[in-house]
Amino acid sequence: MCINxxxxxxxxxxxxxxxxxxxxxxxxxxxxTLLEDGALLSLGDQSKTDRLYLEESPSMRTRKxxxxxxxxxxxxxxxxxxxxxxxxxxxxxVDRLFRGKNGYAFEVLSPEGDRxxxxxxxxxxxxxxxxxxPDFQANAAFTILTEFFVEKVVLRVPTIEASTAFYQxxxxxxxxxxxxxxxxxxxxxxxxxxxxxxxxxVDLDTFEANELVKRFGDQVTFVPxxxxxxxxxxxxxxxxxxxx
Length: 244
Prior knowledge:
By secondary structure, this protein is mainly beta. The chain is built from four helices and 15 strands.
């Protein structure tokens, strides 16, 4: 059975203080908390679709990354460029400001040190960094983004060849990734031990568990009896959750 194209990806980030990070994603990036279930929190937009997850993990079980994080950057695309200006009008500090064909974009660090680029471009290459900050006009009626997607996950990996070989096993997966070959003490550490990218949920148009198991072989770590999802571990020890 053929596995159709990927519908979306939703990263899961392990955090130390979930409340601090939740406030950042809501106020600085305009996301909405959709569900809080124990340590896990899901973030989305007005469509009420889960786009991103935060999982709180206290310091007795998890620690800060030593050296570079696995997650280099999340590139998030919004459908309404005007909403980026309304976010910037809130006055929160951003690291870099850009102008593109569709409007403005900005790059910012989360409290956990995760770099995020929020933009509205068809091609991120069209963005040009600007120094002077315009006088953005606020919109009191604006609260959360109409719609956004995690467009790209930029990963730091020890060996690009090994990671590329893994991601090529599912056609279309590479379209959501950019790889940077980097060295660091925690880049191949067992998953879940640091506040970093922990898991990526992949929503497929159609889904066949046996086909995924055949593709990924011994990289598969778990398949439930009902086969409603498949868990796979990549060469960087990041967990991938595939489901329909």
